[in-house]
Write a structure and sequence with these properties.
By secondary structure, this protein is an all-alpha fold. The protein has 2 domains: 92 residues, no CATH class; 118 residues, Leucine-rich Repeat Variant. 70% of the residues lie in helices and 0% in strands. The longest helix has 17 residues. The chain starts with a helix and ends with a helix.
């Protein structure tokens, strides 16, 4: 596709080697990466507009920033479970995972179902996707009932012992976002965090203590009380 080729050339033309070095220090895979900032990628997505076919071509390129752009221009109504599975298996960096979840996957009709399903998987970035989806849904799915998020809490507890960095941070993120959604979910998330705290695992204790610090803070309680 001509448009995809033009975008790839533009991304390469604004590449930044120093930015790539900085990204690597933050755990972002530097392979096939140009070091283009998210604001620049968002600007390009606005210029391109929604385009499912373009998204597929950009993803196939394997270029880090092109894949982030792909999730910004894709149409969630046209995304199939097969596409989601294919893209998730391609994840090799936490930021691509997180951008796909918060810009695209959380808007698909099967997002809640896939969050549960992917949380059971063994691959690090695949499992991370499940929990980042839970976090993104807690923020973006305004119409979902509390029950949709309450069902995530036992899963969060189940996987809190996973010591892998990209998994445990996503588990913690999901717990915190659910707990900040409203007072009912805050109470349930705090209860879950206290249960996780009793698990004999360094990961679990970090997940729980970090979540409790935020979820029981005056700032969060005040905000929830006013909504």
């Amino acid at each position: 596709m001509k448009e995809a080729d033009e975008i790839l050339r533009k991304l390469k033309s604004i590449s930044n080697s120093k930015a790539i070095e900085g990204m690597a220090r933050f755990g972002i895979n530097p392979k096939n990466t140009y070091g283009v900032s998210i604001p620049n990628i968002r600007k390009m997505s606005r210029e391109a507009g929604a385009n499912h076919e373009l998204a597929q071509e950009l993803w196939k390129s394997g270029v880090h920033e092109a894949r982030i752009l792909a999730c910004m221009v894709d149409d969630p109504e046209m995304v199939t479970e097969k596409q989601l599975e294919s893209w998730v298996l391609d994840f090799d960096s936490w930021d691509v995972c997180d951008q796909c979840c918060s810009n695209l996957f959380d808007k698909t009709e099967f997002a809640h179902e896939k969050a549960v399903e992917l949380s059971r998987r063994k691959e690090e970035f695949v499992k991370r996707t499940g929990f980042v989806l839970m976090a993104a849904l807690a923020v973006h799915d305004k119409g979902a009932r509390d029950e949709e998020f309450l069902k995530f809490l036992p899963i969060i507890k189940r996987e809190a012992g996973d010591e892998r960095n990209f998994v445990k941070k996503a588990v913690n993120w999901a717990l915190r976002q659910i707990g900040k959604r409203n007072q009912t979910l805050n109470k349930a998330a705090v209860k879950t965090a206290n249960e996780i705290l009793e698990i004999d695992s360094r990961s679990a204790k970090w997940i729980a203590s970090d979540a409790l610090r935020e979820l029981t803070s005056h700032a969060v309680r005040k905000k929830l009380k006013s909504t």
